[in-house]
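Q: Could you write out the predicted structure for this multi-component system? I'm mainly interested in how the pieces pack against one another.
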Amino acid sequence: MKVSLIIGILIILILSVVAIFAPLICPYEPSAIDQDSLLMSPSSKHLMGTDTLGRDLLTRILYGGRISLSIGIIAVGIATVIGIILGSIAGFYGRWIDSLIMRFVDLMLCFPTFFLILAVVAILGPSIFNIMVIIGLTSWMGTARLIRAEILSLKEREFILAARAYGASPLRIILRHLIPNSIGPVLVSAILGIAHAVLIESGLSFLGLGVQPPIPSWGNILIEAKSTLGIAWWLALYPGLFILITILGFNLAGEGLRQKYE
Amino acid sequence: MNNLLEIKNLEIEFRGPKKRIPAVEGISLAVRKNEIVGIVGESGSGKTVTTLAITRILPSTAQVTRGEIFFEGNDLLKMPEEELRHIRGTKIVYIFQEATMYLNPLLTVGAQVAETILLHFRCSQKEAKHKAQELLRKVCLPRPEEIMLDYPHQLSGGMNQRIMIAHVLCSTPQLLIADEPTANLDLDTEEEILNLIFNLQKELGFSCIFISHNLGLIKRLCQRVYVMYRGKIVEEGALSEIFAQPIHPHTQALVNAHLRLTE
Amino acid sequence: MLNYIIRRLIGIIPLLFGITIISFAIIHLAPGEPTTQQEFMTPRISSDTRARLARLYDLDKPLHIQYWHWLKRFICLDFGRSLADGRRVIDKILERIPVTLTINILALVLILSVSIPIGVISASKSGSLFDKTSTILVFIGFALPSFWIALLLMQLFSVKLGWLPISGIKSLDFEYLSWSGKLLDLIHHLILPVFVSSIGGLAGFSRYIRQNMLEVLSQPYITAAKAKGLSRHQVLYRHAFPNALLPLVTILGLSVPGLLGGSVIFESIFALPGIGELFYRAVMMRDYNLIMAEVVLGAILTMLGNLTADIAYAYVDPRIRYGDGSR
């Protein structure tokens, strides 16, 4: 399983570097329309071919990666922060605050996430910002439960009791002792969460309810692939391959890390 | 040969993903017909693995790397699986500590005893059930016809241990391996279970390996004892000798602990 | 057991209440009133519709009154009319249920009949070539975006090879087909959707069953079963298998929201007239009443799924069925 961790981290690193330096790597502009090279199959000039407007597919995929990855990371960031805050409040204070928060978690878990996200997108309209926030707001429940459970078990351990005996304030105890101790499992769930968020974002964009063209994202490039089925296989193959590899990378890293912590 | 069971130079190791950890390092022991032999040692000293190795039911992470285990003159480690399977549960039988964990939670205890009967004897379901009920009576369980239909979690630890003993009585065992059968039971129940095992041994005349970390129990039941410490047998002999003159420091500690308790 | 069921049933009341409140809050999430929002999104909306909407949402009344009225209608399953064609929302949803239900049930059958053997065999031959291969396939299955696989399979089987129809639930000449022809036509149309919607579940369940099975195999009662003289096969299938499969009941209940969400994606790719595709259209057209109805019903369905699973679990597991009262 150590192998999977290394492969996962490598995939994440390569994807991030490529995404960050996309403007330096790509010889084309992501939205540069070229009337002379519409729907060209992969060649030395266009490694992954071009789309219906003659835009270079590789360029669009790399730029799309910037969008997809940042949405994934920021959405998970939002979810993790909410999860940590609510989870530690519930775990530390217990009693009615705990049951209130946990009932709210149960309630949120009742909603099919994708339904909820689509409903909110329908109301607020699809934009990169909205999507990040909505995915974040609908995926914090796991982290909250995890943090709460972790804190409940840590709370009984001696060093926490000792800290209390010294008269340290509850907040101080949470910040200084509890959170550093539960960071491992949270990191694992965050990494796996990014994979999930990327999948949701690409699904949304594929349905036309995520990132809006002309801004490229892996999901919305595939919309075009649907209308060119049988004509341009590369349009369908490559963007999906990138989604697959990304999710694979995060899942491998997450699972590898989980095994390390267990 | 007078020995029912003879273990020679047994080595067992645990195999992790990378590391191999020795669990038992070259132990030899013998059990004569009709005797109760004790194995005493702290937890993790390799007592349980040794006994599981006898019928090759070690967990997949543990493996015998060397040695021979003779039972009635045959090496069990070389015996074909199919042949050995007919020795398990008939000639060599086990009772474990915390019987509740060793019973399938999804089956009634009656069904589990009946399963063992059906496994080793040709008889109908109905006959097996009937015999199971008799066995429950034999191990002194009250209202066996009701208890037959109970699940392990509904019974107390002591009752479940009696169920395990009923399993043992499905056949006429030659060797009973009792692995801390009274751990976690209260004193009265412990007494009852020990008496039951002791009486059955007298009645049926099987040999017994009695494992415990409590030298007091061993002293009451056994004629001879092996002291295990970190995967090795560090001392062996008649109980009177061991108590009179413990040689190995670990044995001395065990004896002292026992004497302190009984004072 | 009866006590347990009653306790669970009482427990869903606050959840139901919460579901309606959150859904109600989402309607009012829009900046401004829902009516103006809709007007903004679909300018074609007539002033007549707007007046009707205003009445529907009691926009002139305070919030808690609005909620109360909305709740009353909701309890009578009155979700208003679709803004797209003026039909009753509940009718539109009901007529779509059979397609979604069929596909999901077929997918579940496929998932269980493939993943259970894979999981059990991987666990019982842990570390073998089969185990390693299936672990890798499971990882890939997890990472496959279903819509992408759908595209690739359509490209191959529908466009290139022409073996399977590209989309829809029935052919144009469906009405003229014989009884068996109709069935065959439906099957033809369902192969790709059912397969695509199963992939994630296949990976998830295989892995879950493998892990359960591995854990059960390390339990003391398995050692005891071996010590009794049971064969490897009997130990695996009579003792380990039922114990490993038991928690699956809960997982089946938990998979309801995933299935519903997934149906939005693959029903719209394959143009299948199910509730997922209905929801997708509703979102595209900002058909509020329909969206809200589906969100609320989806949540209630999820809750009922969990509830059924918990009760079913309690029924199959004697430890819960008979409580843990020791004698």
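A: Regarding packing and overall arrangement: Residues 179-217 of chain C form the longest helix (39 residues).
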